[in-house]
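Components:
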Amino acid sequence: MAEIVTMPKLGFDMAEGTLVRWVINEGENVAKGAVLAEIETDKATVEVESAFEGVLLRHLVQEGTPVPINDPIAVIGQPGESVDQGILPGKKGDAEKPKETGKPGGDGKPGEEAVSSTATSEPISIQPPETPVASAPGEAPHASPLARSMAAELGIDLRAVKGSGPAGRITRKDIEAYQQKAPQALKPEVAPEKAPLPPVAQVKGFIRETRKVPLPRLRAAIGRRMAESMQQAPHFYVTHTYDVDALLDLRTEFNSLLGEQDKLSLNDFIVKAVALTLIEYPNLNASLDLKNSSLVYHGEINIGVAVAVENGLLTVVSRNSDQKPMRQISSELKMMVNRAREGKVRPEDIEGSTFTVSNMGMYDVDQFTAIINPPEAAILAIGSAMQVPVVVDGEIKVGTRMKATLSVDHRISDGAEGARFLQGLAKFIEHPVRLLI
Amino acid sequence: MPGITLREAISQALWEEMERDPNVFIMGEEVGVWGGSYAVTKGFYDHFGPERVKDTPIAEATIVGAAIGAALTGLRPVAELMTINFAFSAFEHIVNQAAKLHYMFAGQMTVPLVIRTVSGGGRQLAATHSQTPDVVFAHFPGLKVVAPGTPEDAKGLLKTAIRIDDPVLFIESATLYQLRGEVPEGETLIPIGKSKIQRPGTDVTIVTYSKMLEISMKAANQLSQEGIEVEIVDLRTLRPLDMEPVLESFKKTNRAVIVEEGWRSYGVGAEVAARIYEQAFDYVDAPIGRVAQKEVPLPYNQTLEQLALPQVDDVIKAVKEVL
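Structure:
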């Protein structure tokens, strides 16, 4: 009996996912737990594992198709088993289009199409090679590289040219024939009747093409959440400057004892310090539950760490950071950051943060403000640690300072509390031995 | 037909270089008393004596190994391997020693060695003695691989090969020794690493070398009667590969067929086509065609052997396919 694989729900707010790549092709064996496909959700690209064993009989969706959760995406069964159309529930839209039947205007290799469709039980019609026709509107013209470069040089629209080569390919001959037939069209600079105006300065040189590309899903998701946050949560900001000389010394001492793989970053210390500070400030480790007119004080202190990835950013989550030693925080974050950068992040890596740290220290920034990651109460934006002149006992000396700006949801907390939190954080940052007791 | 045979051209080149430079000597199986398996060195033993015309055991690794040693001491050996199929027995010496000694030891030594050998099929010598593995050797930097297709080129390139300080694998085609052609009087020296247009044309570029030059010429003459003018570029040297005349011709014709006697996979056609696509993409008007040996160990049976080797008709068909 064939089994139906459906689009999994990979997060509480996931409504649909885009099937970006089939890892197992039709006709291939599938082991239980094998990766079937890669799915892009609002947050990340994740791998879908098979719960069944057998042969992948059919892909029900093509790569690049968005699929609502729980809709069927593939059929797995026994070798040779035909797919009973009756077992496919609620088929709709793209998800159930039969395999494409030869590409009109392409150079239609019937053999290849036929092979890839042997697993289907539906008849496949193959279009015979077409007689030379000009390309249909919206269709990319089929032309040789030479024809393309000639057309570009002569300002000819290839869609207007009929191709006489194999499968209607436009070649040099066709461009030359077209040029002979329609010479007027190629000479826009017809001499004007009246005396010509003096020529205007022409912009020479290379002008980059204006491009329009579909909004990547991650970009769209970030946009939606950040707009929601800025519109709904009244933000206020508090900035504090920290003396980080002691922290940097301690880090140097730590790292002299640790291997290259295990070295701690400044951010690892900050995550730990923030987590310990939050114990005393439960208001900033809370969420607003507007539906029930209540505040949720989270039992866990889970620090989200913003990570820049291709096309946007993700927040990976260091769980119960207040209770973990820094080396564990560090190694867990490293693994999650690597997965995020490779597009292989797991749902649990990015779920459940209660407070977020966004650190741009590596980019030489004095300070910046961050947008709260809803439904959290606050976010801490960390600037670069810099050597600056400081006044110590009436004298100017060189010290290392780092600015941090807290953004707080005013519906949950107030300025005084934000400022006290930053003072509290200083206890750990400026006396980092506290991080160890 | 006037001119001299390719056999005579090679013989002349060897003779002239041995007369010119006492450091030049030849060694190989049957090159001395017998006068060479292909009669190239007939009369050499009597004229130059056993010191400079050395008969060797049937041991290719020894022949090449000894020749490398002699070259390192400053002599200029011309070692002969009866066919390129036996070069596999000397493969280590050719690609790992001759090709690399100069580089491995900071240029302290040079290897002015020429290995003459015979490639190609078509004489019913069966699968192990009929191969055209030219590209296998052309794969290795440090070794020059020369394979002429005319008597003039054979003479001029062999003389240059003997005079330069790099190791050269000089590949002759067994079925070209009788080919006649004009060779200019007097000193003939042709630089290694220069392709040459052997026949001008306007419609399609054929890129080829060695025995397949002869086949391509015949195909071109037949096509000409149908009004198709083929331009033929003879590579003459597989390493270093000179693409300039190929690209120049291709930019004119926009269509190419590459003809080689060896197998298609990973062959000369693959390399030349890739370079055309890389360096002249905007001039491509049709997919580049390749003519090569069928991918089988070459059959002994004469009919099957001829069927597996590239023939004039195969070239004509390939040219028409890209038109």
